[in-house]
Design a protein that fits this description.
Layout (H helix, E strand, L loop, with lengths): L1 H9 L1 H7 L21 E5 L14 H11 L12 E8 L5 E11 L7 H15 L6 H7 L3 E7 L5
Parallel strand pairs: 1-4
Antiparallel strand pairs: 2-3, 2-4
């Protein structure tokens, strides 16, 4: 009888039943890695003296390069327009897929709406492919970027 009891206690099932981890009150929550940011965001404002970026090896330079390429419509002054685009890049600096407009604020001048959105589209046509270094291109390929274009020039 003692041998039978010893054999039952040594079985894997008995070990699971007697183990403290069997009781739900004693379970530990699995550790989750911290969440990654949804995307990288930057605000692009008109700037006539924005320097052209020759080689991009830092994330901040991506926004500087697009700012240097953006030429808002001439003569609009402060229109109050804003547009936010979400897009990704390939490792060679080309835009991956179709950019999405996630926000648009029409502004005060209806006749400036179409030229404003055209100027944003032309900035990416003029700049891409962006001149990423090989290591930066590998690091950011497919990551989501949000570019917020704001027409905040004084009248």
């Amino acid at each position: 009888m003692a041998a039978l009891l010893f054999a039952a206690m040594a079985s894997p099932l008995a070990a699971q039943v007697l183990s403290p981890s069997f009781y739900p009150d004693e379970w530990e929550e699995p550790r989750q890695p911290p969440p990654l940011p949804e995307g990288l965001r930057g605000t692009i404002r008109p700037r006539s003296d924005a320097p052209k970026v020759e080689r991009i090896d830092r994330i901040g330079q991506i926004f500087q390069a697009v700012q240097a390429c953006w030429r808002p419509p001439a003569g609009s002054g402060y229109s109050g327009q804003e547009i936010t685009l979400r897009l990704s890049f390939k490792r060679n600096g080309e835009v991956l897929g179709q950019p999405r407009i996630t926000f648009y604020k029409a502004g005060s001048q209806a006749e400036q709406r179409e030229p404003f959105t055209r100027a944003v589209r032309e900035a990416f046509e003029r700049c891409t492919p962006l001149p990423f270094t090989e290591s930066l291109g590998r690091a950011i390929a497919g990551r989501i970027f949000s570019f917020r274009f704001v027409d905040a020039r004084p009248m």
